[in-house]
Design brief:
The structure is a homodimer. Chain A is an alpha+beta fold and about 140 residues long. Chain A has three helices and eight strands, in the order H-E-E-H-E-E-E-E-E-E-H. Strand 5 (about 75-85) of chain A pairs antiparallel with strand 7 (about 110-115) of chain B, so a sheet runs across the interface.
């Protein structure tokens, strides 16, 4: 097979990390299908995720490994790791408790662009936990 | 509100593009919740998506705007555009026909890491259309 055919049609897991050594990782609720968050992993984060069964990401802001929930307790138990055709993006199917976003919502995607607007958002969810409490701010 | 509070809790749509002028955009089937693909948009792609109601991305490989389905016919009608807490990732809830991935599957995420393996994938879907036909290869 040609190189791209091997990547697209093959069964070897060859995640493609970008110039910063990162790959996109989308966390999706395995039960409801809700997209919870979009983050990044480096090789070490991916290895830890596979080894431990709990999602570990690489925080670009803090430039360090970040086990999801290490501070808040809202961990992600990984049920399945999917990869896309060109192997540069992961979807993690995860089992979670209530409250995955640090702002207090179940998902980080709690706002949507208003119909017929290109500027104004609307909330599409309600907070499910007190994030100030969880993060001891 | 502090700047990050405005971004996280405000209702102004202020998508944060990266150093290359791109923002991540995840397409999710509005009906089934399946994650279909993960791509990027620049400002022009986002504007066109909002204006036309059909998903337009920016192709990094071809360095140009790319209306999803312009060649294959498998377009994405945008039902809702969600943005995450720090406004650097979009989720597009889309209505689609059968066959969104150019390889021939409904979703680009048609393989998963095998249980207890860190190297081997398995197919988790079957092809739904003849991509060679659609793309006139």
């Amino acid at each position: 097979m040609a190189a791209d055919k091997t990547i697209e049609e093959g069964l070897e897991f060859t995640p493609k990390f970008n110039d910063n050594g990162l790959i996109r990782a989308i966390a999706q609720d395995a039960r409801t299908g809700q997209v919870l968050m979009a983050a990044y992993m480096n090789q070490a984060a991916l290895d830890l995720t596979v080894q431990t069964g709990y999602a570990t990401y690489f925080s670009r802001a803090r430039q360090k490994l970040w086990k999801k929930g290490e501070e808040s307790g809202h961990v992600q138990k990984v049920e399945q790791i999917l990869i896309d055709c060109d192997q540069d993006c992961l979807v993690l199917k995860v089992s979670v408790d209530a409250g995955q976003c640090h702002v207090g919502y179940q998902s980080c995607f709690y706002r949507a662009l208003k119909k017929d607007s290109s500027k104004e958002l609307e909330f599409i969810a309600e907070k499910v936990y007190n994030s100030k409490e969880a993060y001891k701010k």
